[in-house]
Design goal:
Blueprint (H helix, E strand, L loop, with lengths): L1 H10 L8 H11 L2 H28 L5 H15 L9 E12 L4 E11 L6 E6 L6 E7 L3 E7 L4 E10 L4 E10 L13 E2 L2 E5 L17 H6 L14 H6 L5 E10 L4 E3 L3 E8 L7 E7 L4 E2 L3 E5 L2 E7 L2 E7 L7 H18 L7 E7 L6 E4 L2 E5 H4 L11 H11 L15 H21 L1 H19 L16 H19 L1 H14 L10 H10 L6 H9 L2 E16 L2 E15 L5 E3 L3 E9 L11 E10 L1 E9 L5 E4 L6
Parallel strand pairs: 1-10, 17-18, 18-20
Antiparallel strand pairs: 1-2, 2-7, 3-6, 4-7, 5-6, 8-9, 9-15, 10-13, 10-14, 11-15, 12-13, 16-17, 19-20, 21-22, 22-23, 22-26, 24-25, 24-27
Helix pairs in contact: 1-2, 1-3, 7-9, 7-10, 9-10, 10-11, 10-12, 11-12, 12-13, 13-14
Keywords: Membrane, Transmembrane, Transmembrane helix
Organism: uncultured Gemmatimonadaceae bacterium
Protein name: Peptidase M1 membrane alanine aminopeptidase domain-containing protein
Length: 647
Amino acid sequence: PLLFAVVANLFWVRGRELGARRRLALARQRLRGGALRAAAVALTLIVGLGGFVLYNTRVLNAYQTPDEIARGKAEYERKYKRFEGAPSPDVYAARTRVELYPAAGAAEVEGTFRLVNREDRAIDSLHVLPSALVDTRDVRFDRGARLVVDDSALRYRIYALERPLAPGDSIAMSFRLVHRPRGFRNAGAPTDVTANGTYIYGSWMPALSYSPGRELLDEQTRRELGLPPRTVAPGAGDVETRAETRPVQLAESETIIGTDPRHTAVAPGRLVREWTDPSAGAGGRRYFHYRADRPTRYGVAVLSAEYAVRRDTARGVALAVYHHPAHDVNVDRMIRSMRASLAYYGEHFGPYQFDELRVVEFPLYAAGARAHPHTIAFSEGSAFLTRADSGAVDRTFFVVAHETAHQWWGGQVIPAAAPGAAFVSETLAQYSSMMVLETFYGEAMARDFYDFNMKTYLANRGVYTNREVPLLDVVNHAYLHYYKGAVAMYTLRERLGAAAVNGALRRFRDRHTGPDAPPATSRALYDELRAVAPDTVKPLLSDLFEHITLWDVRSDSAKAEPAGGGAYRVTLFVDASKARADSVGNQTPVAMDDLVEIGVYAGSALGASPGEPLYLKQHRLRAGKQTIVITVPRRPARAGIDPRRTL
């Protein structure tokens, strides 16, 4: 603005317009004294500040344009896609020491992985993919290994082992991670470690095999850069896929965290020791040592802040909510949700595997919630800042119930790394938490949430850029495994009853828990559900889980006539159709011979909870127009097809 003001003043004309040449001459005459000094100051500021910004965004920090990022992803895939599926070891023991420096936003991690070869063939090289979030240094192994690929631009390293790792053999890998922000970035300041709120999780750790998640996902950009369409994973029922799927790794874990003296640090596992090192500067440093009671799904999570703690117990489990001292508005609600969830899941799915369960708040820089063993990490913006009284659904209660359900679905039952993994973990957690919501608050709230899931699924399927797949094949489609999955499971519960569905889930959990259990695939879960379904319901299961099925059922009109004795004869004129969609949304009509609810109500509204019906039974409908005649005991007000919107 200063330079613009100087230039405007130089060319400003008082009186009649003089023309461009005369104005330029006038500007030269005026460029002296104060005007010259002001212009010099402005140019100095522009160069100085511009250089300062350039130094921070280009020298101290890496900067890439969107095109450069896309080209990098494409290059990563071209160079290293051939290693996808190469034999790789599993982490079966992880020990980390984390030093947090919240005031500086910095952290250092020293880690040791014990890796085991669970393949049926020897491993002659180890692939290490450093995270973009930290500087990965000092990678070492306890046997001879030579670095043969060190691609710093694409973050890919390959170490050739002097002696191949035989099946069942193990190797130790140590490393150091450094997170030390410098200057400022062009966009996206690092927020994992802040002055009063740290949340570090597994994305800091180096990956040990080719990661498809680093590939370019947008199909149009892939075409522009000469990449083929992304390979659609084989279906969950594919025999080869099922045969090759192996159990997900379980690992022993131990974490020591050092932090500021006023902070409390939390990690998955039991707190076995806490101490203060007075020699570590003013006020010393506070240390926390956590150790898992049993092998769990491998993952890292570290949280630290100045916490207040609310404690309780339920079914012999110690409950706790670690929260900012001023953020206690929903803490009691979280405790109630943990209590209700442990009671429902323990009764219907099997015992909880730990003796502690805690919710831990982290800053608003990240959103949502994430389940770890023992621990639920929960963003302040999702539940801690606003009282959750408003709205039809208690979202805070539901999310805590959902994340608690992951202690079973994802914790005890670890989904196989195959298509349908999200159906096993996320869909079951969504269904389980809906059942807790219904048990605690009643059917009306569960119905409201069911409607929300249905609307969200239908709205998203029209705009989502990735191809839709059946629920049995879902991997990472939130609108499918959360919203469509909840609708499908709740509909199934309506048809089979809670006892049958929960019994199937209990057997699935019993058969697929533990290190030697068979792979927990979506097909194995589907087989359990089919086993409790009568033949009349099995076609519905196929529609809900094996296919992308859409129903269009409506009553064009209805009439009611006295039938004597106070009863009424209700006639509905119904139109019904059914279609199946492919992955890009093309719909093909299919034959319809389905059981659909018909409802008649004395109340004035057909809402999510229309009250006790005069009539609510299933009728077999076929495609096309048809007439249904029903007799009800008294005068009706409303009638309709599929009044509870289960299709």
